[in-house]
């Protein structure tokens, strides 16, 4: 269940770690005299049942029994499939298939059915792989009532996608694009369309590369933040208690997981002053000119009102969408609840647009005051990035 590998990189007698299977066998033998004497002691070299072939046979037998139990639990009921594909470490295209069904107790169950090696990711190859897997376990496409894939053209294509090929054989196998995945794609598309937001996340990526690219800088960030926390606790500014003041770091965000962007921005907000100090150290003592220049450039960008404004704005927006994304990924959700949750989140976003300006601006101004960042003059001329000051408008 934990997906732990049996095999070790080096299973020789002199290896310090022979892998989970052999190490566990040695541990049991050390506490069981019968196993120690019969299997590891007196058994012939070719009959110890510890060879790689035997380990693979054990894994296959376990996989067969587990899958058999899943099929028996599902019975002849209708089911849905979730499919995705990716390359493994040996550069082979693998398609993972998960079945979703309702058991005898009325609970929605998701079970991993198997991996299928496909020569390419065309819809016809994927369909052939699914049929081959179904035939191994006595399943039929006629019993299929749902399809869940990502938004790639080979999966959801209207004419030649996998969902269309299956619908031709079974018109009841309805396709549903994952709501959480749609939300991620929407956020990515909107962010890349807005110049300031796109530039902001480019800066976040550069910042994570500079801070996270060195263990020394990571340790320096932890130490500086620890010093600030200790000072805050001694002054009574920071509360103490179970689960509070946990160690933080800046994780590199990923486009396909926009919840990671939210976590990164939250951590940056708490570590802001410590991050600036680390960048100042790199700018003064970096080993290379490019490192020092990058650190100084980042300090110049981060100590601007515009950067901090977008930081607070994106935390507020991603906080709403991240909560929706987490709820949409729960197993007990259905299409009716999902639609309702989307409407609720849209209402929250509209409230931020209608009534959230004053509170957001106050948060940014207070944060600027705490970190000695110059506030912007709202009476000044508004200059669009990439354009000259000619034809600029007042901010108000």
Automatic annotation (TrEMBL):
SUPFAM superfamilies: Ribonuclease H-like. InterPro entries: AtLOH3-like, DUF4371, RNaseH-like_sf. It holds the Pfam family DUF4371. Residues 2-161 form the DUF4371 domain. It comes from the Eukaryota. This is DUF4371 domain-containing protein.
């Amino acid at each position: 269940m934990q997906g732990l590998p049996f095999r070790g990189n080096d299973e020789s007698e002199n290896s310090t770690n022979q892998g989970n299977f052999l190490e566990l066998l040695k541990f049991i033998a050390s506490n069981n005299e019968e196993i120690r004497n019969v299997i590891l002691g007196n058994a012939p070299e070719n009959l110890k049942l510890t060879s790689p072939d035997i380990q693979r046979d054990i894994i296959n037998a376990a996989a067969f029994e587990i899958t058999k139990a899943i099929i028996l639990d599902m019975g002849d009921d209708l089911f849905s499939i979730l499919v995705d594909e990716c390359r493994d470490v040996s550069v082979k295209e693998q398609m993972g298939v998960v079945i979703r069904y309702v058991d005898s107790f009325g609970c929605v169950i998701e079970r991993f059915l198997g991996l299928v090696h496909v020569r390419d990711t065309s819809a016809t190859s994927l369909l052939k792989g699914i049929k081959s897997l179904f035939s191994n376990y006595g399943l039929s496409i006629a019993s299929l009532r749902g399809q869940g894939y990502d938004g790639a053209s080979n999966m959801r294509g209207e004419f030649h996608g996998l969902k269309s090929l299956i619908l031709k054989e079974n018109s009841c196998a309805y396709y549903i694009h994952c709501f959480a995945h749609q939300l991620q794609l929407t956020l990515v598309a909107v962010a890349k369309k807005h110049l300031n937001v796109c530039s902001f996340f480019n800066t976040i990526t550069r910042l994570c590369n500079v801070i996270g690219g060195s263990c020394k800088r990571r340790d320096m960030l932890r130490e500086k933040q620890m010093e600030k926390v200790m000072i805050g606790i001694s002054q009574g500014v920071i509360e103490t208690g179970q689960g509070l003041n946990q160690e933080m770091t800046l994780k590199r965000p990923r486009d396909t997981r926009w919840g990671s962007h939210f976590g990164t921005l939250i951590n940056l907000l708490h570590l802001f002053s410590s991050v600036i100090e680390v960048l100042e150290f790199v700018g003064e003592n970096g080993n290379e000119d490019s490192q020092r220049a990058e650190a100084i450039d980042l300090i110049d960008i981060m100590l601007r009102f515009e950067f901090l404004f977008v930081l607070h704005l994106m935390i507020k927006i991603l906080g709403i969408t991240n909560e929706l994304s987490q709820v949409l990924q729960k197993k007990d959700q259905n299409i009716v609840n999902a639609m309702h949750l989307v409407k609720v989140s849209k209402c929250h976003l509209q409230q931020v647009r209608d009534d959230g300006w004053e509170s957001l601006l106050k948060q940014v101004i207070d944060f600027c005051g705490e970190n000695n960042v110059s506030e912007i003059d709202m009476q000044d001329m508004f200059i669009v990035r990439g354009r000259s000051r000619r034809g600029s408008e007042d901010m108000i």
